[in-house]
Amino acid sequence: MPSFLPLALAATMSAAAWAQPRQGPPADGDEIGRIDQISTVLFIGGAGIFLMVAVLMALAMHGPARVRRALANPALIVGAGVAFPVLALTALLLWVLGPGPLAARNGAAAAAVRVEVTGELWWWRVRYLDRSGTLLFETANDVRIPAGQTVEFLLRSDNVIHSFWIPELAGKLDMMPGRVNRLRVTARAPGVFRGQCAEYCGAQHAQMRFDVQVLAPAQFDEWLRQQRQPARSAGPELRHGEQLFQQACAQCHAVRGTPATGTLGPDLTHLGGRPSLAAGVLPNNVGALAGWIAGGQHIKPGNAMPAFDQWAGEDLRAVARYLESLK
Asked: CA-CA to 302 of 20 to 30 Å: which in 32, 72, 179, 279?
């Protein structure tokens, strides 16, 4: 049996547990609070109208003759059946589209953090920008934002329509090819949340997740500083894995500070510090890394990365250990 199969099997078995929804803190974002407010008002309004109509129907069918004659008045029918729905629905529409509930998407205040997210097939390219729009660094499937500060997401796609959705923090917003949509999010307290593509985008749509970590502002600033640093040099014990990576992987992947400058796949400069692999399919550890490199097409069929099942087990572990050291 080829040496890579046990690694791939172990990685695949661990994927089932990793794919379960993460248990985290309750919803804690300003945008999701506005959505909850809209939902509550619409639910209460709809329930009140339903009860009113039910009462009128009961009176019209079984009430006293005097009441039934009054309900048959054409003026009441026009008022309750036409004028009232038009006025009620117009008022609700104006309120929903007004500056209150949806202010988060188009607020005038400058965002403290700008993050460009591009939907790929099937993963998320995440680029942190400064105030002028200059790239600070790039990561993949790993979004970290500061608590209590407004974050502006610039949402793009270069292939098909995706939809960016962090259910516990904000509503979903589509990512349209050729267009940049903007979503503002303010998380009130630190926590860990799971994001998901909410628009069918191909075979692995369901396996297109990402992690969102809300950090305290000082912790976020330190994470930004570390992410902007190049990768640490590989020690003697990792040199073999680094050499194999440069020979086989540098055409598609970048590791800042090394000759690897590929842009087709995710930037792997600090891969070892990310919580998951393959857009949330696998936990991030040496075994899962080796299994993904050897049998990625078995774990996530149709993704753009070829399977390196021709490598010996020793070589797979060497590359996996090198990538795991990139923190």
From this structure: 179
